[in-house]
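Appendix B, example 12.
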Amino acid sequence: MRTQRRKVLLRAGLGLFAVAVLLQLVPYGRDHTNPPVTQDAPWPDGRARELATAAYAAYYDTRLPLPGHSGR
């Protein structure tokens, strides 16, 4: 009786696992695109915008040599 219950629970667990894995293969929600940019972000002041823009440009500039730990 105990081994019978164990077999049923094992099969149920494996079945749930298989369903969870199969659900990962369903391409749900991949056809979405980003909305268009209609205005600039609300910056607290001009200096914050300058600082963020400079930091972004310095990080994403592909002309500069990158250190080995940068991931790109």
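The longest helix spans residues 2-23. The CA atoms of residues 16 and 22 lie 10 Å apart.
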